[in-house]
Design goal:
The termini are far apart. This protein folds into two domains: 181 residues, Rossmann fold, CATH 3.40.50; 115 residues, Rossmann fold (3-Layer(aba) Sandwich), CATH 3.40.50.460. The chain is of the alpha/beta class. The strands form two sheets. The chain has a seven-stranded mixed beta sheet, with helices on both faces. A four-stranded parallel beta sheet has the order 7-8-6-9, with helices on both faces. Helix 1 packs parallel to helix 9, helix 5 crosses helix 6 and helix 6 runs parallel beside helix 11. The protein contains eleven helices and eleven strands. The structure holds adenosine-5'-triphosphate, 6-O-phosphono-beta-D-fructofuranose and magnesium ion. It comes from Dysgonomonas macrotermitis. Pathway: Carbohydrate degradation; glycolysis; D-glyceraldehyde 3-phosphate and glycerone phosphate from D-glucose: step 3/4. Belongs to the phosphofructokinase type A (PFKA) family. ATP-dependent PFK group I subfamily. Prokaryotic clade 'B1' sub-subfamily. Homotetramer. GO terms for molecular function: 6-phosphofructokinase activity; AMP binding; ATP binding; fructose-6-phosphate binding; identical protein binding; metal ion binding; monosaccharide binding.
Length: 326
């Protein structure tokens, strides 16, 4: 059993609903195991600029239901340099922090991996991002809540789209990962999803139109993953306006509304299980791993695997969406 007396916990990158549930679980599981906890504010910034606060069990009371993160978060450019990480390491030594739990996305876990390698520190990561772009876990913390937010918004858009018999392009988040668009489309009965994983394989919009996707439909909703790879919803709409002027086209960009809100039950449970598992992992001498859940079982995923680009898209989802949108 590892000799860990004090851990630091931080949230980094974009906030995600369920991060608070994860902070609570990490804190409570650590204290249960007689490990002291320090909350590090604003992601890696807090280590570099010394914003570190002692955490007790009641520091995390009544937060499981809150969106955002009580630790705040940041995208910290100073941490991208070896000098910045040296300062962070020195802060950990000064504070007596023996190990870190980092809650964040692929960027945050990349930073964790480098810090762990450079300074030989035990670090365990939790996948906290709405993008669901980390390998080795079925879901990331925040993804389910964001998906439900998308579903509520798209259902509302359907009402107006069908009243006006319009074609809507709805842009959702996800960076280079199409899960939010794909499952958002399945959950709302949307006609299609345009996702980054498929951009280089096919002209998704061209195929959609040549398959006559508007012939039998009164309204059409197409979810598009944001970003340069797909070009986003605006680009799609411009193209349709030029090539198919007969269609009445509108665009909705859902934006940061997707990141907020009270986490769903699924996210609260996922975050609670993963947070407790992070402490078990540290006690079990695990280091440089992300906690994942695969088929309802906790797994330890090496950082190198978790952050590998291009999480494979689930082909089954693509096929089902195609079949159901005739
Ligand atoms: N290569 C890297 N080296 C060191 N630190 C990094 C690296 N990449 C990212 N980080 C740190 O992690 C922070 C968050 O990364 P990023 O902005 O990619 O978000 P993320 O964790 O992927 O979350 P999300 O994608 O959900 O917003 C960065 O601001 C930086 O402090
Ligand atoms: O809030 P910011 O810094 O503009 O970042 C937006 C990005 O963060 C995410 O919400 C989470 O990674 C992405 O889906 C999106 O591209
Ligand atoms: Mg990311």
């Amino acid at each position: 059993m590892a000799n860990i007396k004090c851990i630091g916990v931080l949230t980094s990158g974009g906030d995600a609903p369920g991060m608070n549930a994860a902070i609570r679980a990490v804190t409570r599981a650590a204290i249960y195991n007689n490990i002291e906890v320090k909350g590090i504010m604003r992601g890696y910034r807090g280590l570099i600029f010394d914003e570190i606060v002692p955490f007790k069990t009641n520091s995390v009371s009544n937060i499981i239901q809150q969106g955002g993160t009580i630790l705040k978060t940041a995208r910290c450019k100073e941490f991208m340099t070896a000098e910045g990480r040296q300062v962070a390491f020195e802060a950990m030594q000064r504070e007596g922090i023996d190990a870190l739990v980092v809650i964040g996305g692929d960027g945050s876990l990349t930073g964790a991996r480098i810090l762990a390698q450079e300074h030989n520190i035990p670090i365990v990561g939790l996948p906290g991002t709405i993008d669901n772009d980390l390998n080795g876990t079925d879901m990331t913390i925040g993804y389910d809540t964001a998906l439900n937010t998308i579903m509520d918004a798209v259902d509302k858009i359907r009402d107006t789209a069908s009243s006006h018999e319009r074609l809507f392009f709805i842009e959702v988040m996800g960076r280079e990962c199409g899960y939010l668009a794909l499952n958002g489309a399945l959950a709302t009965g949307a006609e299609a999803a345009i996702i980054p994983e498929r951009v280089f394989e096919s002209d998704q919009l061209g195929e959609l139109i040549s398959n006559g996707f508007r012939k039998s439909k009164n309204s059409s909703l197409v979810l598009v993953t944001e970003g340069d790879i797909t070009g986003g919803a605006m680009t799609m709409a411009e193209r349709v306006k030029k090539e198919y002027p007969q269609y009445d086209v509108r665009v909705t960009i859902l934006g940061h509304v997707q990141r907020g809100g009270s986490p769903t039950a699924a996210d609260r449970i996922l975050a609670s299980r993963m947070g407790a598992a992070a402490i078990d992992a540290l006690l079990d001498d695990q280091r440089n791993v992300m906690i994942g859940i695969q088929n309802d079982k906790i797994v330890y995923v090496p950082f190198s695997k978790a952050i590998k680009k291009n999480k494979p898209v689930n082909e089954d989802l693509i096929n089902t969406l195609k079949v159901l949108s005739i």
